[in-house]
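Protein folds are increasingly written down as discrete tokens. With that in mind, we are printing a sequence and the tokens encoding its fold.
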Amino acid sequence: MRIKLRILSVFFLILGFFLFNTCTRNEVEEPSPVGPSTFSIILDLTLSPNVLTAGESRDICQISASLKKYDGVPISGKDIHFEIGDSEGNKINMGYFEGNKSVQTVTTNGNGLAKVKYYGPTAEELSGDISLYIYARASWEGKEFISNAAKLQIIQDMEVATFSLAADPNVLFAGESPEKSTITGVLKTTSDIALSGEKVHFEITDGTGTKVNLGYFEGNEPVITKTTDEQGRVEVDYFGPVSDEITENTTLYIRATVGWEGASEEEIIEATAAIQIIADSDDIYIDVSASPNVLFAGTYREKSTITATATQAGNKPVANKTLYFEITDENGNRLDLGYFEGEKSVKEKTTDNTGTAETVYYGPIAQEISENTTIYIKAWLAGEGEESSTGTTSVSILRDAPDLSLDLIAEPYVLLCGDQNPTSTIKAYFKKGSTLLPDRKIYFQITSGSGEFTNGKTTAVALTDEEGIATVTYRGPTKDDMTDDETVTIEAQPQTSSLYNITETVELTLIKEEEAEYSLELIADPSTVICGDTSSDSEIRAKLKQGTSPVSGETVLFQITSGEGSFDDTDDVYSIEATTDSEGIAKVTYWGPTNTEISEDSTATIEAQVEISEFEVLTAEVELTLVYKD
């Protein structure tokens, strides 16, 4: 018996590896009147599995070669030669065919099949994972032959497997007949290599893991075993209980177990998938909304996105169930006014994992209605041919809307354009009479002047919110992009039919900021220096700005114009230069006198100068208090 799980790669067999893909001949020959024989012969080669584990014992791969004519007729009585080689076609000594042979020949049977078993290496025979190829060749006439090859992976170490399980749908109704859910499992290693040929045991349990007799698997079986395919997938159909088998809503679990004879408890892999069984469909709640919920009947059909969400008590989503959408009047009677996508009067949609399903409703055009009206979109979930749960939402259809209006404002209207781009918030209020209309597209455009919206374009689109307001942001130019003050015009237009052509504009005034004056500020930190046996220091900072912007790269001259002290703690340095950084700050260190250089409290004045131009020199000064300490 096997001790380990066979590992199956997620990659398909390399079936198109043609080492000797075409016929080999010693000389050029005239074609046969019935055509070249090997061109009409197909040799297929499959490995099951195509990944083996090198463990304590040899894993086995079943190799099948199928020889057929081009029209599918099997060819019997032909010898197929099997060999083990590398990717270049060189023979290698790694594992063997049955009978402990490195080369095996098998004759095709009546179905054109030739089968042989390959026994892989053990862990002791490997130093690491390898790939080898199984070659199959069928001799034909003379020196002519047809061949194929398939890749086989040998993995030295067994990896921990992962097993995922899902039920689709994961909500079933207990009605007159059982509803079906497809249970899908995927078995892989942690490095995403699929495991094929493994038997998976399925059973039905409650939340504690105890087996329950509630529904059944295909074939009316309470338990069932399936085998993983080449992708590590396994599927089984579960059929839920009917109405007389259940009295209340419940949740059951499909448990899938992967194991083998002799496996320890730690080696067994298990996964579960939950399925909700609904006994009373009245416990399903359908919430429906329309966006937008006001449409105009004009020259074309306006559309609204209809969203329905199905939930159980406790706000649990009802996933993978069919919802039906239809158009009705206020009494629930079906209306032929507009249609759903695909020009359907009734539309079916399946809820996703959040219990949500969406469809698109297209409203009527002007000639299909004579006055304003309101329609209702009903979404309902069917259970055994009857409406079980229903939700509705209303959509207003406006036939005659002369009181539609659009108000446009800017905050602010006047922008000062300096070193930075100024902005203004543009708001459009879309109304019918005094009622603001939500979920409507408003198109904005800069029709004259410079600047752009924050999307980098001169056009923008925004939806009106619950209060009927659509908002965009205008970004103006800097002063360097302007030659003079200017006016910018922004136009807004709602998405309506040509029957209601509404446009509104707003003007912004852009003022180019004049050349700002320079300023120099001088700060001493600290401004009081203690003069004792040793010198104390203070950081002197000069900050240079033009308007509100810092000026970098300028030279500032610092001088001690009165009092004692130095810009060096050992020498008498009374003036020094420093350059402003990116924040416009130049810094130097002032060192105060000792108590031998002054006999009482005094002051020192420091001056900073910066030459802005040939005709402009900025000056600032700061006074420090020198405290004598005996």
Notes: The mean pLDDT is 84. The chain is about 0% helix and 50% strand. The longest strand covers residues 386-398. Residues 102 and 608 are 94 Å apart (CA to CA).
